[in-house]
């Protein structure tokens, strides 16, 4: 629910005190309580009024903690997006904190006095606001439809300004998405003299064009020549800590996975280090040279000599569709 929507529902202006908000709510609640009002949407309207009232009361700045002895401010929860490289190697990340404060231009009222009358923004000049199917007097303009007040141009009538603060956060190696980084004292201030709460940053993974994560395992696809898959060989594989090398054993030309233990996200606490899991994907040559053509022919001749075990699928097909006369 937005502030303006809540004000419209209750028919109160931006500078309404908690008492005025409660009074407006009590008045409308009497009319719309489903026990009193037979209209089919009475229950729904009543619920929305109640939500609007709670919402606006929460927005009213606390005026001193009368009788309260809050020892510590609330913890603040927020997500932080981190690259895979930071999870593996550690490093720094930035968290942007947005704090809502009273707008300095209007003192939190949401409006400024203007020299001439203008349409009331709450009732659009009608002097009345609608709840369900009934109309009530607009409290913001006293039913006149016009007011000398204009919405504050700095906060667009919300009475709040948003302050952004950038915090540099140390990311230890080995943290995973869903883990929390805790920054002591960076949460909400305490109501009294107590210390502020903590800032708890929940880690989200920034998508990476090469790597994906599976627990602490790092996954990537690495194209290789089909001849390397068939004949074997050493291949370099990227990793956040720099290239690693894997030996491919001679095998089929189909895609296959190999892994390097411990080369994924490093161990942390009770969590073991992850693997770097590499899926080798075969790539076929796209250009020819006379020397290559010669070699391919020699290769095929050798495959034919070696017998049908080399290409069983092809042998089965030929046996089925080209029976010997
Ligand atoms: Zn303002
Ligand atoms: Zn009005």
Give the tags.
7 helices; 15 strands; four-stranded mixed sheet; three-stranded mixed sheet; binds zinc ion; alpha+beta; HSP40/DNAj peptide-binding domain; 325 residues
Reported CATH architecture of the domain at 212-283: Sandwich
- Overall geometry comes to elongated
Q: Which percent bin holds the helix content?
A: 10-25%
Annotation, overall tally of beta strands: 15
Oligomer: single chain
How do the strands line up in the largest sheet? 10-11-15-14
Unique bound compounds: zinc ion
How are helices and strands ordered from N to C? HHHEHEEEEEEEEEEHEEEEHH
CATH-wise, what's the superfamily of the domain at 212-283? Urease metallochaperone UreE, N-terminal domain
The major sheet is characterized as: 4 strands, mixed
Structural class: alpha+beta
What integer value in Å does the Rg equal? 34 Å
CATH class of the domain at 212-283: Mainly Beta
Task: Characterise the protein shown here.
The chain is an alpha+beta fold. Among the domains are: 72 residues, HSP40/DNAj peptide-binding domain, CATH 2.60.260.20; 32 residues, no CATH class. It is 25% helix and 31% strand. It has seven helices and 15 strands. It has a four-stranded mixed sheet. Strands 1-9-8 form a three-stranded mixed sheet. Helix 1 packs across helix 3. It starts with a helix and ends with a helix. One zinc ion binds next to loops. One zinc ion (ZN) binds next to loops.
């Amino acid at each position: 629910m937005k502030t303006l929507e809540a004000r419209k529902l209750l028919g109160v202006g931006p500078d309404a005190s908690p008492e005025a908000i409660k009074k407006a709510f009590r008045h409308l609640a009497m009319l719309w309580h489903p026990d009193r009002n037979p209209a089919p949407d009475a229950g729904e309207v009543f619920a929305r009024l109640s939500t609007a009232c709670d919402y606006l009361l929460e927005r009213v700045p606390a005026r001193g903690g009368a009788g309260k002895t809050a020892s510590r401010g609330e913890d603040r929860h927020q997500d932080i997006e981190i690259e895979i490289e930071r999870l593996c190697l550690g490093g720094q990340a930035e968290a942007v904190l947005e704090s809502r404060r009273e707008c300095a231009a209007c003192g939190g009222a949401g409006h400024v006095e203007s020299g001439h009358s203008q349409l009331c923004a709450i009732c659009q000049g009608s002097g009345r606001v609608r709840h369900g199917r009934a109309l009530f007097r607009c409290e913001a303009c006293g039913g006149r439809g016009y007011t000398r007040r204009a919405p504050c141009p700095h906060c667009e009538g919300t009475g709040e300004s948003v302050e952004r603060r950038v915090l540099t956060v140390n990311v230890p190696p080995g943290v995973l998405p869903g883990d929390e980084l805790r920054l002591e004292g960076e949460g909400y201030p305490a109501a009294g003299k107590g210390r502020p709460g903590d800032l708890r940053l929940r880690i989200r993974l920034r998508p990476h064009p090469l790597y994906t994560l599976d627990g602490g395992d790092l996954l990537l696809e690495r194209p290789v020549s089909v001849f390397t898959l068939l004949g074997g060989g050493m291949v370099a594989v990227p990793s956040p800590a720099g290239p690693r090398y894997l030996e491919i054993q001679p095998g089929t030309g189909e895609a296959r996975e190999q892994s390097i233990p411990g080369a994924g996200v490093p161990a942390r606490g009770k969590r073991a280090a992850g693997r770097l899991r590499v899926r080798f994907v075969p790539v076929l040559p796209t250009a020819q040279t006379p020397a290559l053509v010669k070699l391919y022919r020699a290769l095929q001749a050798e495959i034919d000599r070696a017998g049908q075990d080399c290409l069983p699928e092809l042998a089965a097909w030929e046996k089925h569709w080209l029976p010997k006369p």
